[in-house]
Design brief:
The longest helix is centred in the N-terminal third of the chain and has 41 residues. The chain is 85% helix and 0% strand. By secondary structure, the protein is mainly α. It is built from 3 helices and no strands.
C-alpha cells in the first residue's frame, strides 16, 4: 500500500499543486482579458464600430496559432478554445454596441 511518504505520491501532489496554480492563473488571465473586452466594447459603442472587426480577428487568429504551436497545443484544441473565448467576447461587447446605435439614432432624430 502507498503512504503519504511515498515519493511518487509526493510527486503527484506537487504536480497537482502546479496544475492548481496554472488553473488559477488561467482564470485570472481570462478575467483580465474579459475586463479589457468590456472596455473595448464601450469604446466600439461610442465609435460606432461593429463587435466583429475582420482584420482584428485575423490578427488574433494568426497570433494564437503561432503561440499555440510554440506551446505544443493541438490545433483542434486551440480552435475550440479560441472560438469559446471569442463568442464570449462578442457577447460581452454587444450590449454596448446596441446602446451606442440606439443613442446615435435618438440623437440624430433631435
Amino acid at each position: 500500500p502507498l503512504t503519504t511518504l511515498d515519493p511518487e505520491l509526493q510527486k503527484l501532489s506537487r504536480l497537482r499543486d502546479q496544475i492548481n496554480r496554472c488553473d488559477a492563473d488561467l482564470v485570472e488571465a481570462l478575467g483580465a482579458r474579459f475586463r479589457a473586452v468590456l472596455q473595448v466594447g464601450q469604446l466600439k459603442g461610442r465609435l460606432g464600430l461593429p463587435p466583429l472587426q475582420k482584420k482584428r480577428w485575423a490578427e488574433v487568429l494568426r497570433v494564437w496559432k503561432k503561440s499555440a504551436r510554440r506551446a505544443g497545443l493541438s490545433p483542434r484544441f486551440t480552435r475550440a478554445l479560441l472560438a469559446l473565448i471569442h463568442r464570449e467576447s462578442l457577447a460581452l461587447q454587444r450590449p454596448f454596441i446596441g446602446n451606442a446605435k440606439s443613442k446615435k439614432r435618438k440623437g440624430s432624430l433631435k
